[in-house]
Design brief:
Order of helices and strands: HEEHEHEEEH
Number of strands: 6
Strand content: 5-15%
CATH topology of the largest domain: Glutaredoxin
Structural class: alpha/beta
Strand order of the largest sheet: 1-6-5-3-4-2
Number of helices: 4
Number of domains: 2
Helix content: 40-55%
Length: 225
């Protein structure tokens, strides 16, 4: 009897030890899990804060660029630039034109890069819709032209084409605004795009930049804006 009671007590003791060991393991696992979760949470919070801070900084930089004047930029009174639709040729007082009477069909300007000259009367209509028009002549560096083609190609409400008889090698135009830049890496390029792509100078913000005239001179369905 005594031997049986002793064996039973030993088993109970071992079971109790095993139970305590299991509870200890569970506690360690909970602590480890909570610790990992805390680290992950802190990491996510920190990353989220970094992203928000980065976005905030980028927004502030864009707002600052939009407010700052573009060095050596030329301006014309947008309200005095004609906006009539005409079918006859128009003589513009600046080259390239930055506004004035124009054809009822716009040049497609959804990142369109034209390898040949485009009619000013159509390009001016694109400017009226809030596009930035990048132009260059034979003096422009081929590498700069390539970089600008890439930039325009990624930017809705922009277009690019050669203008042989313009004064500067590379020029950027918006409605009532124009600047000659030194090259594709000139900081005024990004500033001009930030400031004037669908910028406050736009007479018809949100108007279409597709459905107009393309590279082959064909027009789409959208006209008359």
């Amino acid at each position: 009897m005594a031997a049986n009671r002793s064996a039973t007590a030993d088993r109970r003791a071992r079971i109790e030890e095993m139970r305590k060991a299991e509870q200890a393991r569970e506690r360690r696992n909970r602590i480890l899990t909570l610790g990992i979760a805390g680290v992950v949470t802190l990491g996510l919070v920190g990353f989220g804060g970094w992203v928000l801070n980065k976005e905030s900084n980028e927004k502030e930089q864009k707002e600052a660029a939009a407010k700052a004047p573009v060095k050596d930029e030329k301006s014309w009174d947008a309200k005095k630039l004609g906006r009539n639709h005409v079918t006859t040729p128009v003589t513009y007082p600046m080259k390239p034109a930055v506004g004035g009477d124009h054809h009822q069909v716009w040049m497609n300007c959804s990142g369109d890069v034209y390898k040949k000259a485009v009619p000013e009367v159509n390009a001016v209509h694109s400017l009226e819709h809030g596009a930035v028009w990048v132009t260059y002549n034979d003096k422009a560096d081929a590498g700069d032209v390539k970089k600008l083609e890439t930039k325009v190609g990624k930017t809705p409400y922009s277009l690019m084409s050669p203008v042989k008889d313009q004064a500067g090698a590379i020029m950027l135009s918006a409605w009532g605004k124009q600047v000659t830049v030194d090259g594709a890496d000139d900081p005024r390029v990004d500033q001009f795009f930030t400031k004037y792509v669908q910028g406050p100078q736009t007479p018809e913000p949100g108007a279409a930049c597709t459905g107009g005239m393309g590279a082959e001179g064909q027009t789409g369905a959208g006209m008359g804006q």
